[in-house]
Amino acid sequence: MAIDFPNSPTTGDIHTVSGKQWQWDSEKWIAYGSSLAPDVLKVDSGNNRVGINQTSPTVALDVTGSARITGDLTVSGTTVTVDSASVLIKDRVQFEGATANDYETVLLATDPTADRTITLPDATGTVALTSTALPLTGGAMTGAITTNSTFDGVDIATRDAILTSTTTTANAALPKAGGTLSGTIVAADQIISAPVMKDYAETVYAGGNSGTSQTLALTNGNVQTWTMNGNCTFTMPSGSTLQAGSSFTLILTQDGTGSRTGTFTGVKWAGGTAPTLTTTATSGIDILTFTTFNGGAAPVWHGFLAGAAMA
Fold it and tell me: What global pTM score does this model have?
């Protein structure tokens, strides 16, 4: 049977004759067997493309609509594009990795008993495993935590410094049950109530030569010794840190010349008369005691001659 083909066909044109389908490949007509409507199966031999429900295929196999594959699907390209809101997978996704071997990573979903949603954050990072993450209900840490952030509003670095300082202080503190001190205690003018003192002493400050003027300070000690090598004016202790009730003892020794005199500013003496110092050279030793009941920058000192010519 002679077939009357169209004149001047265009590449890809399809001509149907007696249930058979022919397509022009730009040189000749090629038979394709049973006739199919072009909107069901389109063979574009000029561009090596096939369309299913697609009259203008743009890729090698262009399918419009659903497709079912009952066997394995192997994709050898580098990119699979899924332009869909949902991809239905039974229970796992398997990753081969860069090396094709017997080892794979499987992303497995436990059989759900209700609809579940796991949301990935808009952030870059590494997913932590439950075996290495601290659970919300608490647990034991086996390694160090390094952070520049805060926990419950507390800066960890600052708190760590406080805890270290507190621990160091606690380790060095005297226990409430008592113990032996191994260093100096500075009470900083604080009140110590109801102590029972036993076998105690006061600091003795050796001031050296008195010269003709000397300003006394209790920070040196509450017992002070001076050698009278001149007629000296002693300025009594004063200042904002001088506490009411302060007292001290002054031990004055004549030098090799002797007959040195002493004057004391702002002192009220017993009987209203200042004592005369012993004049004996070298061996002339006098002991005077002083106490103030107001302290401060303008204290009133009360003086007493505790002992004269003590040699």
Answer: 0.48
Which two tokens mark 13? Answer: 């044109």
For residue 161, the 8-state DSSP code is H
- Residues 6 or more apart from 254 whose CB is under 8 A from it? 227, 228, 260, 277, 278, 279, 280, 281, 282, 283, 284, 285
pLDDT in tens, 238-272: 999 999 999 999 999 999 999 999 999 999 999 99
Q: Per-residue DSSP letters for 232-297?
A: EEEEPP-STTPPTT-EEEEEEEE-SS----EEETTEEEGGG-PPPPP--TTT-EEEEEEEESS-SS
Instruction: Report yes or no: 228 and 251 within 8 Å, Cβ to Cβ.
Output: no
160 residue type, one letter: D
Structure tokens at 221: 């000690």
Element (H, E) at 160: helix 156-172
Helix (H) or strand (E) holding 172: helix 156-172
Distance from chain centroid for Cα 62: 58
Residue 119's identity, in one-letter code, is T
Residue-wise pLDDT tens digits, 197-209: 899 899 999 999 9
